[in-house]
Amino acid sequence: MDAGGTSTRAIVVDASGAVLGTGRAGGANPNSHPPHEAASRIANAITGALGGLDPAATAACVVGMAGVSKLSDPSIAEIFEAAWKDAGIGPVRTVPDPEVAYASATSSPDGSVLVAGTGSIAGRIRGRRMVSTVGGYGWLLGDEGSAYWLGREAVRSTLDVLGRGGEPGPLARAVLTEALGPSAVDPAAGASLWRALITSANSEAPIRLARFAPFVSEAYREGDPAADEITTRAAALLVTNVMTARDPGERTPVVLVGGVLSPEGPVGAKVRAELAGLVVLTSTDGVLGAAWLAAVDAYGEGAPRPASP
């Protein structure tokens, strides 16, 4: 199972790697959803994936969960253990979602993983476990190079242009239109736009800044120097984090995860260029990684990797 902030997916595979069933539910990150609700969604996804199969026949179960650290609270862990019991399965091994993302891309037990979606984190993988991390502190303390970071820098860049009375480029125009409406893009209204954009950005939850991130990529493709500079800095920060998670001279794989690191996007392309010479892989589907880890738990290292359902 891959339990994220917005959706949860479960698959059941047999010893041959064949997918026997799939299940879906809403987000199940216990940091962003009430724990009882998150646990219920996981149980529903498991039940859906099992279908008519006997839950008691489950040989192993791995749940890659965003916010898994929440289960270090015994009262929260008890809620989830009740969900496993209600679904009729056990034992269940819960792991951080970067671990299943890493396993979806490679069978190598050692390497590193770099995640850049709404937030960002880099992790050292040893024996398929994430043994140390760099970053991942959330929007207030870090998340360098993430969609949140890109969106924040897009707004800051726009404010810089307005503050010095410059002509808004593609990125600034897109930010102003999104934040203030189509009529906002009027260079003659620089000072009032500057104040309005600050007010707008501060009136919402900080994580909402992530919605401006796609405009950075779009403006980059239009040749906007501001977008080029932002994506270059984002890539440098992400590469620094993942290399900090590695030993000097390490040649193990680097697995990239998340929309910001898509090969088609400028940040993803720049990160791959910086990591040239290393084996750089792209995570395919976290639920496949979770299923394979469960298969290894049940059947050993020779367990075949499941095909995409």
UniProtKB/TrEMBL annotation:
One Pfam family of this chain: BcrAD_BadFG
UniProt KW keywords: Kinase, Transferase
GO molecular function: kinase activity
UniProt entry tagged with the keyword rRNA-binding: no
InterPro entries reported for this sequence: ATPase_BadF, ATPase_NBD, Euk-type_GlcNAc_Kinase
Coiled-coil parts of chain: none
Residue ranges constituting the ATPase BadF/BadG/BcrA/BcrD type domain according to the UniProt record: 2-294
Domain of life: Bacteria
PANTHER family: N-ACETYL-D-GLUCOSAMINE KINASE
Protein name: N-acetylglucosamine kinase
